[in-house]
Amino acid sequence: MGSKRKSPVAKSLAKNSKAAMISAIEIHNKPTFRFRYEVVVLLALNAWELLLKACIYKYHKKIKLFKKDGTTKPFPECIAFVASQNGDDFEVAKENLERLYDYRNKIAHFYYDKLDIIVFALLKRNVQIY
């Protein structure tokens, strides 16, 4: 009996990214879900982080995703790196992700009660870009 072959890292990251984005959309579509926008922001950014890391891992082999302490490259660094490689083509996505990341930090690390139409618009565009 042979050992199972592990799936490629980039493929697994992309698969989990897609699952996170679908989960974000499903939760967004539940109007009575408490803490809905906060959860959707967290899941959407998780989806993007996994996707960016999949791209870096697959197409930029010289870039190290893992640090010596076992953590991975932070999300803002992933955005910056992908933006540096894609220029203007990634600018709209970069701006959108950075704004959502600001909201994410506010809701993940404390409390933010001003998730309003701006977040809705950012999320809508974020899913379209994804």
Main features:
globular; mainly alpha; Four Helix Bundle (Hemerythrin (Met), subunit A); disordered N terminus; single chain; 130 residues
Please give a structural write-up.
- This protein is mainly alpha-helical and 130 residues long.
- It has a single domain, classed as Up-down Bundle (Four Helix Bundle (Hemerythrin (Met), subunit A)).
- Helix content is 68%, strand content 0%.
- It is built from five helices and no strands.
- The longest helix has 24 residues, at 36-59.
Précis, in short:
It contains five helices and no strands. With 130 residues, it is mainly alpha-helical.
Number of strands: 0
Q: Could you say what the CATH architecture is?
A: Up-down Bundle
What summary fits the major beta sheet? none
Continuous helix count: 5
Rg, rounded, reads: 16 Å
Helix and strand sequence: HHHHH
Average the pLDDT over all residues and give the rounded result.
88
* Span of the ends, CA to CA: 41 Å
Going by helix content, strand content and strand pairing, the class is mainly alpha
CATH class descriptor: Mainly Alpha
Show unreliable segments: 1-6
CATH topology: Four Helix Bundle (Hemerythrin (Met), subunit A)
Helix content: 55-70%
| Strand residues, percent | under 5%
Number of domains: 1
What general form does the structure show?
globular
Secondary structure: elements and pairs:
Elements: H1 9-28, H2 36-59, H3 75-86, H4 91-109, H5 117-129
